[in-house]
Amino acid sequence: MECGSSMQDIQVKLTARHHVEGNWEETTHSYEGKRVQKASAWYLTYKEQMEGVGEVSTTLKLTDTSITLVRQGGVSTRQQFEKGASTHSTYQSPYGPFAMETLTNKLRIRYEAEVPVQVEIAYQLWMNEQYAGEHELKIELGK
Questions:
Q1: What would the mean pLDDT of 29-57 be, rounded to a whole number?
Q2: Which of 3, 68, 98, 140 has its CA 20 to 30 A from that of 92?
Q3: Is residue 118, in this structure, part of any structural domain at all?
Q4: If phi over 0 gives left and psi between -120 and 50 gives alpha, with beta otherwise, what is residue 5?
């Protein structure tokens, strides 16, 4: 296996679930991405097309205890996920800024040969102090 300091091309499969009005809505997207290890963290990067805002560059920083999601482009945000913790951030959209609060219920990173291959996050979200439901992200990383 590679020593980790070199950039690896990967396939990123992102499944997002959102609990709305008693029902789960699910979307799945696939992206070309990169994976690299720096110090004690892994970084995953990919570009996504977001409806109404265009291209957004997404970076996930994975550590033993937290995941940080950074989006830059048509929207920008820095969202921190830490199991059992409530975190605050700002979501900058074309329609203006939104105050976000995230309460992370589940955070799991699965490794194979010391390389991250799957990320799972379950959280509750508030936007401008209004409850915005339960959310789940599952990110599968392949070659």
A1: 93
A2: 140
A3: yes
A4: alpha
Which range of residues forms the domain containing residue 58?
8-142
Provide the number of structural domains found in the chain: 1
pLDDT at position 2, please?
A: 42
Q: What is the CATH number of the domain that holds 89?
A: 2.40.128.20
In a domain, 2, yes or no: no
Backbone phi, psi, residue 90, to 5°: -120, 135
35 membership: H or E segment, kind and range: strand 23-38
Digit-coded pLDDT (tens) for 109-143: 999 999 999 999 999 999 999 999 999 999 999 98
Burial class (CB in 10 A: 0-12, 13-18, 19+), 42: buried
1 occurs within a structural domain: no
What would the two tokens of residue 48 be?
A: 């996504």
